[in-house]
Write a structure and sequence with these properties.
- By secondary structure, the protein is an all-alpha fold.
- The chain has one domain.
- 82% of the residues lie in helices and 0% in strands.
- The protein is built from five helices and no strands.
- The radius of gyration is 17 Å and the shape is globular.
- The protein starts with a helix and ends with a helix.
């Protein structure tokens, strides 16, 4: 039964990742909260699953002409640099700190999205 739950979590993470919505936003909380996986392990699983999902998704998005290289390159270069540095330091962080930080990040994104939606709705008279 456990393997089925892991497969369903992977399917949802892959679906969100394929849509460009960040599968880890769902994958990490599901692994930690539902399956009881330690935060660092959940992040490692997310990174390991992200690579093949990203490659397949990127190929499909390039084929559909949805990728602007002019926009992507200035994002990718600093992201690679910062992710490399962060991955070197994260091993020194407590799993509890990582879990709290990730939760606060998701909460902030949710609040930002809600505010943006409400502003847009008010602007459009809805």
């Amino acid at each position: 039964m456990e393997i089925i739950v892991f497969a369903l979590i992977g399917a949802l993470g892959g679906t969100l990742g394929g849509m460009g919505m960040g599968g880890g936003s769902a994958l990490i909380p599901m692994l930690t909260l539902i399956m009881g996986v330690e935060q660092k392990t959940a992040q490692l699983i997310n990174l390991a699953s992200f690579i093949p999902v990203a490659v397949v998704s990127l190929i499909n998005h390039f084929k559909n002409k949805l990728v602007s290289v002019k926009t992507a390159v200035p994002i990718i270069i600093p992201a690679l640099f910062c992710s490399t540095l962060t991955s070197l330091f994260v091993k020194n962080f407590d799993g509890r700190f990582l879990k709290t930080s990730f939760g606060l990040f998701l909460l902030a994104i949710g609040v930002f999205g809600l505010i943006k939606t409400l502003k847009k709705r008010n602007k459009n008279g809805g």
